[in-house]
Amino acid sequence: MLSRKIRHLLGTAFPITVVYSAEMVISLTDGIFAGRIGADALAGVSLAGGLFFAFVYAAYGVTSTSSVLITKISAKDLPNLAPSILVSGIVSALILALPILLLGFFVPDIMTIFSSDSAVLAYGSDYVTLVAWSIFFSLLFNLYRCVISSIGNGQIIIGAIVVGIIVNISCNYLLVFGLFDPSYLGVLGIATATIISKFVIFAILATYIHYRIFPLRLSRMKFSKTDKRFLAKYFKIGSPLAVLGLFESGFFAIILSLSSMFGSVFLAAAAIVLQVVDVVSSISLGIGDSATIHVSKFTVQKRATSAKIISFWATFYATLFTTGICALAFVFSDEVVSIFIGAGDLNIRNVQIVTSSLLGVGVFVVFFDAAQIVMLRSLKGVEDTFIPMCFSLIGYWLVGLGASLALSFYTTLGGVGIWIGLAFGLFATTLALTIRFVRKRKLA
Q1: Confidence (pTM)
Q2: Is residue 230 part of a domain?
Q3: What are phi and psi of 341, to 5 degrees?
């Protein structure tokens, strides 16, 4: 019985992980092509992207609430409410998209706080003012992905993602260096490729769901009382998660920003390590979202013990897979750097040395990050989001940031101290979330 539950957990996690991986691969492709332009371009794109996408990933906390809502109505055998959940989710995505777009235009000003390198600032400004327009497609894609995952059809998601990755790589190849055009787009080509690929993925999922699952007529687009009720649920359940997402992704963005204070070489190395951490974390995000679905289902069925058992197995596999992959990246750190920066770049050897040191710490970062991701999403499955948000606020911004500042600026560790502080903050958050989940007497 238990082995079947675990297989179902991992089976559900696989397509979700592929989706998260695709999102990370698009970001990874941006980093690789930026690195081929130069170390300054990689540093600028990573710094600007880290600051902007912190707000995007925060908004995912609201739109991903669709998975909880769909799972609950399915468990209660109320499938007729699914279109209302989708419509209210679309509205929530559009409500969030506009302010985030406007925030994107202020990112170049924020960058000046952390870096005075004119080349880094120029590359980052060009990139973020264009890529900010991808916010609409990003949020709608995340909404549709969660809805489709909850009804158990992951093949279409994987297919859409594969097409999106191919489009992204092709557009980068054609636009960044102007392969078929004498004009040189550079980082503007990277941003354009991201927008196009995210639109393609969204269009495929939207076409599938509106023609095959929930056909929506124009008359249906009138906002009903049921839609308003579900919209309120999106923000009630999702807002703490959005704040939490901002705490987490914003914390990583600040870590990257602090890294810029130690020079463009250190920033380039930190950007590479963060790319590795992001790609690897797609596994824990996929398993964590699968845990949300299973914990939510067991909660509705009043099977609290099963919910806790599946959550701990999810944590075990998430930490096992992610830590193993990060350890391999550490062993082959020079080869990892060569993916991003060409052999002819004068800074490549210095970047390799710094990257090796940071990946050593990154193994611990990935371990605690995977554990806290699964615990957080398990608590989401029982609609417990506010207190975990407070735990993350304390863990990231007081414990983690405090330790990063102390170790980097008041010891001989330098920039490496930033990443040790990051690991310490994630450890504190993991410990608090685990204790809360274990001690919950009632899964509501």
Answers
A1: 0.74
A2: yes
A3: -120, 130
